[in-house]
Amino acid sequence: MKVQCELCPKRCLIEAGQSGECRVRINIDGTLRTVVYGYPCSIHVDPVEKKPLFHFLPGSRTLSIATVGCNLHCKNCQNWEISQANPEDSQAFECQPEKLVQLTRQYNCPSLAYTYTDPIVYYEYTYDTAKLARQADIRNVLVTAGYINEEPWRQLLSYVDAANIDLKGITDDFYHRVCSGTLKPVQDALVVAKASGILVEVTNLIIPTLNDKPEQIRQLVRWIKTNMGGDTPLHFSGFYPRYKMRHLPPTSLETLETARQIAVSEGLNYVYIGNIGTTKGQNTYCPACKNLLIERVGYTILKNRLKDGGCPDCGKEIYGVWK
Amino acid sequence: MTRRKFIQKVIKIVLAIVSGAWFLAKNVTPRKFIRAVKLNIFPGSVKPLQEIKSQGKWSG
Question: A248: exposed, middle or buried (C-beta count within 10 Å: 0-12, 13-18, 19+)?
Fold first, then answer.
């Protein structure tokens, strides 16, 4: 008997004994099973800035986990060895939700991040762990491409505190050609997440020749400003030749800086540059008086001048979760 | 129009309506999300938990 998975917009109709596109949700005797529940392939203590989250508990560490699998197949994926892996060919630790919460406490992390691949494909594991973590006063962070249906998304968001969601491009054609997905569900997920009241930061990875034209960047930025507000932090991330896109050059610093200037000129208040060796575009400035608020180098906080979540000079409240 | 052609036309219209309705029911009607059940056996290999204090090598 076939089973339809209703988790993501792909709505895979799965034959008995087969998996969906994500490789980790399998039809066994007519029941949809998740084979990665309790089996992360990676657990590390990362700085929260690495996610990247710049407006969420700056300078804190987050217990970061992932299982194998992903519902998108981005040709540029930096983590393709785990995101595009078959569970049967991979190694994992056994770590049930209770153990993850215990490790988060043990390593003195205020948050737990579901990251590296996409927490959407290990949805049930993420959901149950996030619920337990919330009870233990631990914050939950998602790093995701946002390719999920509305009902499971809303259910999950009720236990989430912050998310960095990719907006990989601004055309359906880009999502189709590069990621084997579609744009609209991602835009819907971004709007729903923002409206739910959690902290949302957006990442756009700029790939030379594919989504690096100033007009494409302007269009993307305008969409964010109109639908999510000018206070939404945006990270322009540098591309490196990986997986099925080894023929393209890395993104230049100049392109990232141009993108940042476009975003600032369009009215976004917090625009950052990442995944490239630079000290530019790392700091947070007050959108009102323009004074420096948080100074960063890489994942390190050099200075944090925020006072009760606001600018110490003019008092403007700064979007974020600061304590 | 002959009776045969008329009947063929009616059949085509009915088929188009039925297949259109089936397509809409399948793709447009929202269906309830049901959680997947955990398998409890990992199909790959399970290794003991190693040092996790170090920063992850993966992006994100």
Answer: middle
Element (H, E) at A93: strand A91-93
Smallest Cβ distance to A64: which of B31, B41, B56? B56
Tell me how far apart the alpha carbons of residues A13 and A204 are, in angstroms, rounded to a whole number. Answer: 31
Tens-place pLDDT, residues B26-60? 766 667 899 999 998 999 999 999 889 999 999 99
Measure B36 CA to nearest chain A CA, in Å. 5
CATH number at residue A240: 3.20.20.70
Give ipTM to 2 decimals: 0.92
Nearest-by-Cβ selection for B39 from A33, A51, A91? A33
Distance between CA A74 and CA A58 in Å, rounded?
A: 29
Residues of B with CB under 8 A from a CB of A: 30-50, 52-56, 58-60
pTM: 0.93
Residue A12 lies in a domain: no
Number of domains in chain A: 1
Task: Identify all chain A residues contacting B37, using CB atoms and an 8 Å cutoff.
Answer: 31-34
The single-letter code of the amino acid at A294 is I
Query: Which residue range is the domain that position A97 belongs to?
Result: 38-282
